[in-house]
Amino acid sequence: MKESESEGRRAGGRYGRQAEAQRNDILVLNAARAVFAEQGAGAPVSAIAERAGVGIGTLYRRYGSKEQLLQRLCAIGIAQTIRDLSGALEADGTGWEVLARYMATAVEARAGAFAALAGTFALPEQVTAANAEAREMAERLLRRGHDDGTVRDDITTLDLTHVVEMFSRYPRRTDEDDHARRRMLALTLDGLRAVHTGLPTPQLGWDDYQRMWDEPNGQH
Fold first, then answer.
1. Distance of alpha carbon 6 from alpha carbon 156, whole angstroms
2. Phi and psi at residue 193, in whole multiples of 5°?
3. Three-class secondary structure of residue 140 per DSSP
4. What domains lie within the chain, and their CATH numbers?
């Protein structure tokens, strides 16, 4: 009986440590997402640990470097984007309705918050492949709005990406700021509707965008 109780305590301790490690990982990732979005890639790791409420040793035991942490955040972010796009592609509604709902969800998740860090760290191959998958899904989502005539035909997926990035960086200091962000996002999404006055030309291409990630510090 005593041996069984001892084994139970050891198992409980092991599971308890695993649960604590998972909680700390979530705290670190949430803190890192906020700190990097606010301060850029130059943000000190100590600021992330302080925001997360953990010791810096705890952070480094999980992530050996700041770059590894950034890469992990990108992997999590693009996985969420793919899930959101998959849900949008299966949703009912007009092309504009499902597109607008998807973009509102992406902004709420701050899916484009790291765009300002483009070129400051290397993207893992799996993230690059996932980005290509997400882009193809976004093309299909936009094509739905073009095909049913509810989304203006001069909108591109890169335009959508820029909108998400712009609103993902919007500061959230107060409830009033958040309300203003939602109003400006609604106004912008309404601008995707088919009735329009035309956008400035030329259209930017994905090659232009990719250079931000491929070249050091986004230098063109």
1. 62
2. -65, 160
3. helix
4. 1-64 (1.10.10), 66-218 (1.10.357.10)
